[in-house]
Amino acid sequence: MSQSDAMKYARKQVTDHGHATLEGVRGIRTDVPIRSSVRSPFPPFRIKSKQKVPRLNADMLDGHHASDFSQAAIDASQIASGILAQQRGGLGKMLDLTGLADQYHLYYDAGSNTFKVASLPAGGSHALLSATHTDTLADSVVAGDLIYGNSTPKWARLVKSTDGKVLGLSGGYPAWIDPPAGSPHNLLDGSINQDTLAGTVVAGDIIIGNATPKWSRLAKGTDSYPLTMNPSTHLPAWGGDMIFGGSRTSGFKRMNTVPSASDIGTDGLVLYDGTATQTDTIGDTSSNNDNPYSYFAAQSIVPSKSGTLTSLGINVSTVAGNLRLALYSTYSGGKLSGLLGQSADTLVVSGWNDLSIGSVSITAGATYYPALQVSSSSYKGYFLNSGTQYYYSLAYGTFPDPTGTLNTGTETRNMRIKYSAIDPRLYMNLNGTVKYFTPAG
Known about the structure:
By secondary structure, the protein is mainly beta.
């Protein structure tokens, strides 16, 4: 085709049934399939149509081949240089890759309407109570603090308290509180003292470890019964068998009345600890004209047994006026002291005048000092003209403690003490016969 023919075709409009118009044709034949020989940079033709153009094939669109629109791999250099945003146009948001480095993550920044990159949250060293942990309340550690679950709930710092506080609950949450008050309570309450069995104290009871084991009350037993280990329970109990000389007896008792054969049994033992009235006397009736009027006068006496004093007496030969008696425990530095008791002012009678000076315990072998005052110069009493007396001038009345300085002389007034003495005996059954033994001394 000549050049003039090509120009002729280029200026001609070709209409195909009103579907489309081909304009500005240059060097294109329209009566055959269209072929273009127009060289770049001129486009071979333009399509102006709002309708679909069937069987229109295009190799490039906006300067891009079809292969450019397929998914392609992106290398690190493209991401690091920001080329992705330029070459991948059409993203809904801008992509800012400034500062991208290893282990960074992509996030959306609403303020700039841009996707950005940042380092991952630190997975190394960080505080326990820090924002890194989403279930903690950020705080700093102080020596003595604790961590607890608060009402949020989050792990939070419980600030240490002052010395002496204890950890308890307040409003359902851990808190430092005052220790429980040591309010008065029973020893065997079974509650505050959790290792006890509840029990009320009774005079004579004791506390033992029971089989639970807990501290519990062992009720007092029968008078004179010993505390033994029960062979069945292996716990303390009142009464029961006793071991003597390697052999077991059927029972051991203490009695304050003289036991019978039935009390003892065939192989039992009974300790009789009854009492007997004991009288110890000093002086005699060999002389009968003692008159200590206007004086304090005393003697010494040693009980033969131990017991409880029932009376203190003096033997009177001539009745006149009143008298007073007393008992002292100590002689030292020329004086008597330790006044144990004294009688009331009592009218004198003939013979023994046994007066009460109160309940006084006396011990065998100890030295005591009975003392006398009389109100009449006509009084006369019996005495032994030997031994030692202690005296000094004193007006009739209440006995002093201590006394004044005493003089000594040769005389022993006829006086006595009466007392309930312990009379222990050990009874046993020997071949059907009840025998008893008394302790030596």
